[in-house]
Amino acid sequence: MSAPISSLAGSAKTACKKFWPILDDISMYSLRVTDEGMREPHWHPTTAEMAYIAKGNAWMTVMNPGGSLDTYLLKPGDVYFIPRAYPHHIENIGDQDIHFLIFFDQNTPGDIGFKASISGYSRETLAAAFGTNVVNLPELPFTAIDPLLVERVNPVDPIE
Fold first, then answer.
1. Which of 45, 67, 76, 126 is the most exposed place for a label (fewest CB within 10 A)?
2. Strand 10-15, strand 5-7: pairing
3. Which candidate, 152, 146, 148, places its Cα nearest to that of 6?
4. Model-level pTM?
5. What are the tens digits of pLDDT across the range 7-48?
6. Strands, DSSP E only, in 27-136?
7. Which Pfam families does the UniProt entry name for this protein (predicted)?
8. Exposure b/e, 42-70, CB count within 10 A at least 16 = b
9. Environment class of 27 (CB within 10 Å of its CB; exposed 0-12, middle 13-18, buried 19+)
10. Separation of alpha carbons 117 and 158, rounded Å
């Protein structure tokens, strides 16, 4: 199938019950993130995620229930697992695309990205949540549709 999501940051192809009726309670992404992109911070409230890294290098950061962050180096041949409802994101840290196959334990991953989520709140609500005055908040763009992949504008952390 052609990639339903495609941008300068990468592309995603999906395999799910909608297209393959045999797939009950499982779905998959073939996700490519370019050296210019990252998988935006997101979580899956009711879906666990497991993936195989086919190509490239990336940092994966996972937020634990207590709020601490763990960051892992992903390289070809690695497999990772993210429990349900753990926020996480992936940054390409190489000079080539990263390609990974992601498997979910639901018909759809129920993906909630931070960019689209934060767009649903008023500036006043966000100011209260962050404990600041509305005038201190930057102008945030409204995002009606979760982009899945975004262009990385932050510097790449070196591999240690």
1. 67
2. antiparallel
3. 148
4. 0.86
5. 889 999 988 888 888 888 899 999 999 998 999 999 999 999
6. 27-33, 37-43, 49-55, 58-63, 69-74, 79-82, 88-92, 98-104, 112-113
7. Cupin_1
8. bbbeebbbebebeebbbbbebbeeeeeee
9. buried
10. 30
